[in-house]
């Protein structure tokens, strides 16, 4: 076991922050793994370090005699961030200008993704991508690969070596897609099932059934995806919905009888728990209620939505209907891997009050959306995204003195919300001093 003494942030079951200005985090092998008694989540991966205790240093210091304590004065320990929607093959597409979503896909994304049939190329991009996630303090991600099965094997094989908790899927797109990325209906479903069996539940890894979006998938492919989703209920589903008005008009042409874009996914059995839909911007209350009723969750992608000019996620309406959500970078439509940049953009999106009701999201609520709230969205509450006892020990050590302005501003923070907001507004990768992975063998000095 090993312990860390610093300011400590975690969340209670209602999403409220729990903060110890002088806290202690004790991590070690899971009690189940070592044979000792203690609670152990059914979905916690075996062989990983977990949080054994978390709280005020003064309360805990005598309970763990002999445990080495690393003292980190002036630092904040917080849960590793969770990115609910990102495209690893688009790492090199970030910052590509275009006239909105559909031209951006056609001119940049599809040509680039066609290169991922080459496993060596996929591996090279995956290595860089995983390094970026870790450097920015992201310890769990739900990511699109490309339509090539090799792109999934490359990414998940490398993630396994690092001990990252990663969920990924082969993109399904058998129509309205150019040569090089378009797949073949029957083979795409066989490939998906083979990948589920190869990767899902291997250590910390998971698989996500990944229809790109309704316009890119034939009815037969959507039907097959829905059948797989029913056959493998703990496998995730990831897709896009209601991002852009041109996209929505296209869906209406393709499915004139559907009540809405979201209803197309419902028709094919693709709305359920563990189904994560990026964007969910141009929804009505019936769509939001359908998300709530089915347990599907929105991956709010604010830097992407601002970059592509897609629109503004309506937080007040989501809350009113009980629709769940969490935060995502959506790189390469998104402009940053940094959770700080994403949280700040989410604040801008919340404030926007011309197309919907504007509000000020509390800094701790922004943070929750990228940690414990995102874990809840994935059905992984109590596993990742938090630092309560039993959680897998993915955490970041943040330095509020990382830059002159951040140091000056954070020193004047009078409470937790002000401290978190100074990091959200002024922080970036320079504030991430260390990233600890529960499953990391060799990267984590606590191993
Ligand atoms: Zn996306």
Overall mean confidence score, pLDDT: 94
Shape: globular
Bound molecules: zinc ion
Low-confidence stretches: 34-42, 441-447
> Which structural class best describes the helix and strand composition?
alpha/beta
Compute the number of strand runs.
15
Largest sheet: 9 strands, parallel
Tally of helical segments: 17
How much is the radius of gyration in Å?
Answer: 21 Å
Distance between the termini: 9 Å
Walk me through what this model shows.
α5 links the parallel β6 (138-144) and β7. α13 packs across α17 and α16 (404-411) runs antiparallel to α17. Residues 34-42 and 441-447 have low confidence and may be disordered. With 447 residues, the chain is α/β, with parallel strands linked by helices. It has 17 helices and 15 strands. It has helices at residues 31-34, 57-60, 101-113, 119-135, 149-162, 185-199, 219-231, 245-254, 261-267, 285-294, 302-307, 315-321, 339-351, 363-369, 372-377, 404-411, 416-426; strands at 2-11, 17-29, 49-56, 68-79, 81-87, 138-144, 165-169, 171-172, 206-211, 236-241, 275-279, 297-300, 325-327, 395-398, 432-436. Bound molecules: zinc ion. Zinc ion (ZN) binds at residues 85, 87, 240, 278, 330, 333. Residues 85, 87, 240, 278, 330, 333 line the site of zinc ion.
